[in-house]
Design goal:
The protein is α/β, with parallel strands linked by helices. Helix content is 43%, strand content 24%. The chain is built from eleven helices and 15 strands.
Length: 364
């Protein structure tokens, strides 16, 4: 399994320059809010996904007064060999190197360094629009299946062309039909992949939720898509006049929705803040387990402020269960260093502790 041995971060958010070496097992970062703990975890996520875990333009991650940032790392790969990765992001774009060789297509890198991040920002999966939940499904599936990534990228490019054409005064209907025909295959692949993901996620999420919450609520996920009962071409045909009137594509997999349910009702309305947080942590741990099955080894797990609003003993048991079998590399942040040490010291002797302060990190 890939393990992050060393990272170099320059001009990423509040981190001016930092070089750190990590434990292959448990890494704990403590410090007050706003000191850079989340930024360090997101830098690790960036190296895996070539983008932030949070929905913001790349420029939002430039340290104040700079025009870009650089991330470099050494990973111990699953074959036992080391690989070097370097990602440079500027206003002109991104450049990614592996062992000093340029990666011409970012999509080829996705899935090489599998990662799962759990953070307080996950609440957007419940409270925000369906776009956030589609981003989640894309992040999971793109890491496990390169064909899925190619399909969603192809569909998105063609969708942009279709929407541009619909904005014209008199759209070419033959060209619209041709674009729609090209969209059908990737749309069908994305739809079937998302449906399988939900089917696989549901029992695992339910199991983790019971472990975390200790409650008797039944949680599940419902997948809604225009393609559940018709092909994309039939869907486009039934919405043709509406698309001409609205001047954009009003149907398709870009409208897919994932509804999080508790006792049959949307959790955003029926669930308390604690129940929502429990569900989201369960969802991310389910993602971790499913990716672990797919790869045959554990992805890197980033746990940002996961103890907030959750019962400490249950979260301790959950992390212990994850860490107990086929131990992968885990990064945990917390504002309480003593609490963190009290949990982690019981799990493994191979751990490293860091304290964050003003964008700098000291190993202790």
């Amino acid at each position: 399994m890939p393990s992050l041995k060393k990272i170099v971060v320059q001009d990423f958010r509040n981190i001016s320059f930092q070089e750190l070496a990590f434990s292959p097992n448990m890494n704990c970062i403590s410090g007050n809010n706003g000191e850079g703990k989340t930024n360090l975890l997101d830098a690790i996520y960036y190296l895996s996904m070539t983008k932030s875990a949070f929905p913001a333009p790349d420029s939002a991650n430039f340290r104040y007064g700079t025009e870009g940032f650089t991330l470099g790392a050494i990973y111990q790969m699953e074959n036992g060999l080391e690989s070097r990765f370097a990602l440079k992001v500027s206003r002109e774009g991104k450049k990614l190197l592996r062992d000093d060789k340029p990666c011409t297509r970012m999509g080829e890198h996705i899935g090489i360094l599998p990662v799962v991040m759990v953070s307080p920002g996950d609440i957007a999966l419940v409270s925000d629009s369906g776009e956030e939940r589609r981003r989640f499904s894309n992040a999971v599936l793109s890491q496990m299946d390169r064909e899925y990534l190619a399909a969603i990228q192809s569909y998105s490019r063609l969708l942009a062309q279709r929407n541009k054409l619909l904005k014209e005064t008199d759209p070419d209907r033959d060209l619209l039909a041709a674009i729609g025909a090209r969209m059908a295959a990737p749309a069908a692949f994305v739809h079937s992949s998302r449906a399988r993901l939900v089917e696989e996620l549901c029992p695992v999420v339910s199991s983790y939720y019971r472990l975390i919450s200790g409650g008797g609520e039944a949680v599940s996920i419902e997948y809604k898509s225009d393609l559940s009962n018709a092909s994309l071409l039939d869907v486009f045909e039934s919405h043709r006049e509406q698309d001409f009137r609205l001047r954009y594509t009003s149907s398709g997999i870009q409208r897919d929705e994932f509804v999080f349910l508790m006792n049959g009702y949307p959790i955003r309305r029926a669930g308390s803040q604690g129940q929502q947080k429990s569900f989201l942590v369960a969802l991310k741990f389910a993602q971790y387990e499913i990716m672990k099955r797919s790869y045959g080894f554990a992805p890197i797990l980033l746990l940002d402020d996961v103890f907030d609003k959750l019962d400490l003993s249950r979260i301790s048991n959950l992390i212990g269960m994850v860490a107990g079998v086929d131990f992968g590399q885990i990064f945990i942040t917390d504002t309480d260093s003593a609490r963190l040490a009290g949990i982690v010291d019981r799990m493994t002797d191979d751990r490293a502790y860091f304290v964050a302060s003003g964008g700098t990190f000291q190993k202790i």
